């Protein structure tokens, strides 16, 4: 019988047209993706991928399976939620302010279009507050940034990666660096580098900059929003996740600059306490969220490249 994982792999492969990229997005190996496709082709007795043409990725049968697979995945997720739903039960989502502000709205718009009758309870927290709630075992799962440096999260929670953030260098629309084609390391060191107060994001960004022999003068602020407004006011520059500034860049209020050899990223996802069992509806929401973000990733990467 066809499995959830095989259909998901086929859908992601179809949308990104690369076995390597599909494996990257699903956090598995390339041979795993190849094996899933081979098993699907054996199951249906027909080729799904056109391996001889560069112009057409799917065969005619492959195109039909793609359309059906999308419907099957959505129906499977909706059915699981309906069958596990109890009276007065709501789907509870615990998330960091960052994910609650910049990621969940896009996901919830599509999710509620399908699951219109499911009540939602959305709780967002500042990173330090969320961390405290998890340490005190008042919360057992959350959607949040995941740092390898965080020993407590790494040892006490199972981690399900959803997406990876790219941090970009932003300056105000009137900043002298705005018109510069090349940004040098010394340019960063001459400016105030505005950063959120969160311990782990500070440690994460500064460590990566120091590996590139960049030693900035950090100024700490309470949140991404305060940092953004301060950059707009000309108080300094900042490295921030692209999702948090993409609208400001599109409107022209902020300018994104490339600095060679500096790549700052972080993973985000669902963490679940090792002794905690999620409800089926919680896992269904996670899979829906992952599917939506995976499908949107090409647009996200393209907008950064621009």
Task: Give a description of the structure.
- There is one protein chain.
- By secondary structure, the chain is of the alpha/beta class.
- The chain folds into three domains: 4-73, Orthogonal Bundle (Arc Repressor Mutant, subunit A); 91-162 and 268-305, Periplasmic binding protein-like II (D-Maltodextrin-Binding Protein, domain 2, 3-Layer(aba) Sandwich), CATH 3.40.190; 164-266, D-Maltodextrin-Binding Protein, domain 2 (3-Layer(aba) Sandwich), CATH 3.40.190.
- It has helices at 4-16, 19-25, 30-44, 60-84, 97-102, 104-114, 127-135, 151-156, 185-189, 199-211, 224-232, 242-251, 280-305, and strands spanning 91-96, 120-125, 141-146, 157-172, 192-196, 217-221, 238-241, 254-257, 265-273.
- The strands form three sheets. Strands 3, 4, 7, 8 and 9 form a five-stranded antiparallel β-sheet that branches.
Topology readout:
Elements: H1 4-16, H2 19-25, H3 30-44, H4 60-84, E1 91-96, H5 97-102, H6 104-114, E2 120-125, H7 127-135, E3 141-146, H8 151-156, E4 157-172, H9 185-189, E5 192-196, H10 199-211, E6 217-221, H11 224-232, E7 238-241, H12 242-251, E8 254-257, E9 265-273, H13 280-305
Helix pairs in contact: 1-2, 1-3, 1-4, 1-13, 2-3, 4-13, 6-13
Brief overview:
The chain is of the alpha/beta class and 306 residues long. 51% of the residues lie in helices and 20% in strands.
Mean pLDDT: 87
Using DSSP, what is the number of strands? 9
> What is the CATH domain class of the largest domain?
Alpha Beta
Proportion of residues in helical segments: 40-55%
- Number of alpha- plus pi-helical segments: 13
Distance between the termini: 43 Å
Count of spatially separate domains: 3
């Amino acid at each position: 019988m066809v499995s959830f994982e095989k259909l998901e792999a086929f859908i992601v492969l179809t949308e990104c047209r690369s076995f390597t990229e599909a494996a990257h997005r699903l956090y598995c190996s390339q041979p795993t993706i190849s094996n899933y496709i081979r098993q699907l082709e054996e199951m249906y007795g027909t080729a799904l991928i056109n391996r001889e043409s560069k112009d057409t990725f799917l065969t005619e049968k492959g195109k039909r399976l793609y359309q059906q697979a999308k419907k099957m995945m959505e129906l499977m997720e909706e059915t699981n939620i309906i069958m596990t739903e109890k009276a007065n039960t709501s789907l509870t989502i615990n998330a960091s302010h960052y994910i609650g502000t910049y990621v969940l709205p896009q996901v919830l718009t599509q999710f509620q279009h399908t699951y219109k009758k499911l009540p939602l309870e959305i709780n967002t927290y500042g990173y330090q507050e969320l961390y405290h709630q998890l340490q005190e075992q008042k919360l057992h799962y959350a959607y949040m940034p995941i740092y390898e440096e965080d020993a407590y999260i790494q040892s006490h929670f199972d981690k399900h990666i959803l997406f990876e953030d790219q941090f970009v260098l932003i300056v105000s629309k009137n900043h002298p660096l705005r018109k510069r084609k090349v940004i040098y390391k010394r340019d960063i060191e001459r400016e105030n580098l505005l950063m959120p107060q969160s311990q782990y994001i500070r440690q994460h960004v500064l460590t990566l900059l120091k590996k590139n022999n960049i030693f900035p003068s950090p100024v700490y602020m309470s949140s991404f929003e305060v940092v953004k407004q301060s950059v707009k006011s000309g108080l300094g520059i900042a490295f921030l996740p692209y999702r948090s500034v993409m609208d400001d860049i599109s409107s022209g209020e902020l300018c994104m600059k490339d600095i060679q050899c500096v790549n700052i990223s972080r993973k985000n996802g669902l963490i679940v306490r090792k002794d905690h069992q999620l409800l089926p509806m919680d896992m269904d929401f996670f899979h829906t969220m992952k599917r939506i973000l995976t499908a949107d990733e090409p647009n996200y990467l393209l907008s950064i490249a621009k």
